[in-house]
Amino acid sequence: MSDIRELLLPALRWDEATGYEEERPLIEQALELGVGGFALFGGEVEAVAKLTSELRERSRIPLLIGSDLERGAGQQFRGATGLPPLAAIGFLNDVDAIRRAARISAREARAVGVNWIYAPVADVDLEPDNPIIGTRAFGGDVTRVGRDVAAWIEACQSEGVLACAKHFPGHGRTTSDSHATLPTVAIDADQLRATDMAPFRSAIAADVASVMSAHIAFPALDPLGYPATLSPRILGDILRGELGFKGLVVTDAMIMEGVLGEGEARAAVSALRAGCDLLLYPTDLGAVAEAVQAALDSGELDAARIRASAERRTASARGAWQGKPDIPSLGEDRAWAEELAQRVIHEVRGNVRAPLTAVELTVVDDDIGGPYPPPSREPFVAELRARGACVDEPGEKGKRATAVIALFGDIRSWKGRPGYSAASREAVRVAAARAKDKRQETIIVQFSHPRLAASIDADVPIACAWGGEAAMQQAAARWLTREST
Question: Which of 252, 333, 366, 410 is catalytic?
Fold first, then answer.
């Protein structure tokens, strides 16, 4: 039974009002069971460091403590350094920048006690209508994506932190979101192998510690229509056999609809039977453990294979960093990270004149409405003011001020679409028309993928800032107030 429990990786979420206290019953249950690790979402760096120290001290086994840090430790943990989205760094075609970004992510992960990063995204950005990948992937050129994935992995793991190539065999072609449904990718196997799977080959050649499965069906690879997470053909024959991967296979989150057709407990059994080693984000630990034990007792699951998964997990945990958090080391690379964030900002339409000294700001936020609030938009305003710009709402300055429309449209799992809603596009059009009537110079700063500029119906300059997190808001403000050369 202990082997089974080590394959469970429950998630702990920070609450702005209560911190991790809401998760205390789950923490106690998980430690009593002897789970193999945790996935952390959010938190203040001091609280995260305190939590990870407690988990390690109380656990009977070495833990894998992971987090989604695609955009640096600041993506999850307040007080850590945020980085641009992977697509933005890939846009620079600068492998050294990718390596340094990965090293920073790994060092700051260690600083708060995290030893496993669920990154890099190894998917190829092949479908503009993909609702969940977009800026999360390095780009659409398969050769460059493979190169960048390998560079990120090697740099991250050189710091003692495990990397994770996701989402095998590729999430880049989907037009639906596996958080909400089971997507199907209906192209032939040769094309999948040549394109979608190519970056995973690069990841394996770079000795990536783990691969995350996709909750997506690929009929050309598995005619039975199972999602990759539940497919012995995709995970066993192809990932293990054909590609020769010997590391950890971890599921994508087990709360996602793309894998929950049988319910969580049955999906967990099917994932292990298919070849997954670890179950990420199970919600009912007791029920999952009981279902797996019942499958072992009945012979549905092979005991030797489950022991092999447990041994793989133990070896990975022992090979990963297991030290104490070091909060003072946070921020050592922040100046470089800030420079990187400003480097990726660029015009996608027209020319933006800088520096701006007086701004009438309109915020159009396409990211409001989901289960989790978007990042505060205050960093953009605060940084503009810190750089000496006067910032007011429309109508307060007259035509002497530049009308800036800040358009936020990040990838969000609840949206079920890429791009901006009709309401957001209309709000931008109205704001731009109002500024035109006042004969104001107007600029749109879109915090999203550059290709979304094509959907904006306004004949004004557009700058791309890639994502709406604080690091990119501050970088955009610095870019707008920079001295022109």
Answer: 252
